[in-house]
Amino acid sequence: MNKVLRKVQSSFTSPFWAIIVPYGWLLLFFLIPFLIVLKISFSDLKLGLPPYSPLTEWVEQGVLVIKLNFTNYSFIGTDALYLFTYLDSLIIAIIGTLGCLCIGYPMAYGIAKTDPPLRIVLLMMVILPFWTSFLLRVYAWIGILSPHGFLNTALIKIGLITTPLTLIDTTFATILGIIYCYLPFMILPLFASLEKIDHSLVEAAYDLGARPFQAFLRVIWPLSMPGVIAGSMLVLIPAVGEFVIPELLGGSQTLMIGKVIWNEFFTNRDWPVASALAVLMLIFLIIPIAIFQRLQERQVRFLDAD
Amino acid sequence: MAQKQKRIELQPWQDPKAKPYIHLEGVSKEFRGTLAVDDVTLSIFQGEFFSLLGPSGCGKTTILRMLAGLEMPTTGKIYIDGVDVTHRPAYDRPVNMMFQSYALFPHMTVEQNVAFGLKQERIPKLEIQERVKQALKLVQMDKLGTRQPHQLSGGQRQRVALARSLVKRPKLLLLDEPLAALDKRLREQTQFELVSIQEEVGITFILVTHDQEEAMTMSSRLGIMDHGRMRQIGTPNEIYEYPHSEYVADFIGSINKFEGRVVEDETDHILVESEEAGCELYVSHSADVPVGSQVKVAIRPEKIMIAMTPPEQKRNATKGIVKDIGYLGDVSIYHVELKSGKIVLATQPNIVRLAERPVTWDDQVYLFWRAENSIVLTA
Q1: Which residue of A255, B119, B213, B318 has the fewest CB atoms within a 10 Å radius of its CB?
Q2: How many secondary structure helices (H) and strands (E) does chain B include?
Q3: What distance lies between CA B52 and its chain's CA centroid?
Q4: Looking at the structure, do residues B241 and B180 belong to the same domain, yes or no?
Q5: Is the domain of B291 the same as that of B355?
Q6: B83 has pLDDT over 80
């Protein structure tokens, strides 16, 4: 009896179970939905529910016909709007990521250099915004940026400006929103890799004649590269497909791919085109990221080979 | 005459006219209210191999870090080659350090690690290559230049760290427990290599260690530290044979100490009456202490002779029972209990084999030593 129990117990603690749970999760909630989207992207638009035609059809006895419809993809190719939207989304996301990096790096470095009791408080403060709803935080920015919002009122009061600045409903506001919302995702991996850097390496660099900036450039920066890459990926990937921030802060000025997909789904009810857009976005994201990561890996390895 | 001249050259600290190369003047360092280094004044001469020796937390590493510029003294001044460098940052000092952890840059190859310091000086590429090659050859690592630090063994890393700190040809090389991470065999071998490399490059070395054996074998002089203070500075021989204080005597090697009362203190000798030793102790040097005061007389175990029959001398001679014999192969340590209950250690070389030895457990033996071999400890 005991033996059986122990066997069950050990099988539950085996690495197999540790792996199967997250992979099962990914399979169920990522791969299967993606395959459904992929399927819809190859179907025809149809009035009714669901608003697309099935891929497979039974004709006569036992003959199954699979019909792949590529017109959705070719349609996207004919309208330059989609390409520009994709490029715009990418540019906005890249600027947002760089903004997060510029603000997040000194913050992460500062946190990594403080002593443990204070460090925990600082880290908590980085995570603190997560305790409020994401949507609420983005709405709050409307209050700050709108023509009669906090910022404009304050600037007018000080006397810096006389008429309110147009801040809300601009690409600037979208980028600001992205930087604000995704900053913790940049700081945390950066902190993790900066904290691991042995301080004696920095001291060794000073000792060998490197001024603080040189020591940063040739020792700290390359050693924090894993954190920079991880943080940038965590910000860039969701930022490209971001819907809420451009919708609430960008107004009609910014057209991001997330918004276009939303429009296709809910305004036009064109599920196949929307799905094709989603598939293309994924492909366009994966390819440059794979190349980038490859290059970075090589660069880290040969950083000092000049 | 020529002989005498040479002697001073080898021992510049004996020459009152010699100018110190490294000079610390009343240096103190305070960390959050605790004094890590307490008013240390120290002169080190060009080409010396100087060791700072002491238990952990005695302030030796802090002195090293202040010399490197990684720590600034709270008070006092530091001179290197006559120049006041007290407030110069680490990157602006003609000093290099070999870190205890070696601190090799993990993202660079061996060659890139060694070249790092030279690149900071904007030296032409070809010269860098040449000097890196030389430095790696000096430490016998020229075959592994393209390896990354994680592909090296501990001993190899230590060599790369040494090459990296030597390649800039500093005026002073600081070594922070350089051999602590190596196993005993490798450590002993590396000790001699370090000394020969130091002689080859002619750079002044300052080494920090808690290993007294290491300090004794390698250094020209050593400084014994305790609680931030410099207790004694001298050659290994001086420190071992003439420790000024009980602390220093205890720190280096083992020593027997007898408490006693001064009966006579003349210019050429001192006589101490000791109940603990069970005899009169005659030391052939003056201690400058008043008659009647309590002192300790110390004698190293290997200076004590053991005999089965009473010796001719009456002073510096006592007797006891052999309680224990520690066999170390080359020598044996005899633990002899005196009448006072005091255990005295006496080391004897094993000239004859264990089985043929005359002295054994529970034997009564006579212990005696020569007057010039004992020391009076006043502090």
Answers
A1: B213
A2: 9, 20
A3: 6
A4: yes
A5: yes
A6: yes
Do residues B202 and B285 share a domain? Answer: no
Tens of pLDDT along B237-263?
A: 999 998 988 999 988 888 999 999 999
Q: Is the pLDDT of residue A175 over 90?
A: yes
Compute how many other C-beta atoms are within 10 angstroms of the C-beta atom of residue B57.
15
Structure tokens at B151: 């592909």
C-beta atoms of A200 and B95 within 8 A: no
Helix (H, G, I), strand (E, B) or coil at B168: coil
Question: What CATH number is attached to the domain comprising B148?
Answer: 3.40.50.300
- Packed helices B110-120 and B125-138: angle between N→C axes, nearest 10 degrees: 130
Quote the tokens at residue B158. 């230590």
Q: Which amino acid is at A241?
A: G
Domain that holds residue B122: 18-247
Question: Among A193, A208, A224, which would you mutate to test the B interface (most chain B Cβ atoms within 10 Å of its Cβ)?
Answer: A208
Q: What is the maximum alpha-carbon separation in chain A? A: 83
**CB interface of B with A, residues 61-100, below 8 Å:** 68-70, 89-91, 95-97, 99-100
* HSE toward the beta carbon, residue A221, CA cutoff 13 A: 13
In this predicted model, what pLDDT tens digit does every residue of A34-76 receive, in sequence order?
999 999 999 888 887 888 888 888 777 778 888 888 888 998 8
B91 and A203 within 8 Å at the Cβ level: the answer is no
Q: Residue B117 in 3-state DSSP?
A: helix
Question: Beta-carbon neighbour count of residue A71 at 10 Å?
Answer: 14
How is residue B289 annotated by DSSP?
-
- Residue B11: its pLDDT value, please? 78
pLDDT in tens, B24-56: 999 999 998 899 999 999 999 999 999 999 998
Q: What is the mean pLDDT of chain B?
A: 90
- Report helix, strand or coil for B350: coil
- DSSP string covering B213-257: HHHHHH-SEEEEEETTEEEEEE-HHHHHH--SSHHHHHHSS--EE
Q: Would you call B60 helix, strand, or coil by DSSP?
A: helix
What is the nearest CA distance from B88 to chain A, expressed in angstroms? Answer: 12
My answer on whether B241 and B258 are in the same domain is no
Q: Is the pLDDT of residue B377 over 70?
A: yes
The pLDDT value given to residue A118: 94
On whether residue B218 sits in a domain, the answer given is yes
Q: A9: pLDDT confidence band, cut at 50, 70 and 90?
A: low
Same domain assignment for residues B81 and B229: yes
Model confidence pLDDT, tens digit, residues A111-142:
999 998 999 999 999 999 889 999 999 999 99
How far is A303 from chain B, CA to nearest CA, in Å?
Answer: 8
Closest CA to B170 of B145, B135, B209, B196: B135
Q: Which residue of B has its CA nearest to A300?
A: B107
CB contact under 8 A, B103 and A304: no
The answer to whether the CB of B224 falls within 8 A of the CB of B255 is no
pLDDT, residue B248, reads: 92
Instruction: Report all structural domains of chain A as residue ranges with CATH numbers, in order of start.
Output: 72-302 (1.10.3720.10)
User: What distance in Å separates the CA atoms of residue B206 and residue B209, rounded to the nearest whole number?
Assistant: 10
Alpha-carbon torsion B165, B167, B173, B178, what sign?
positive
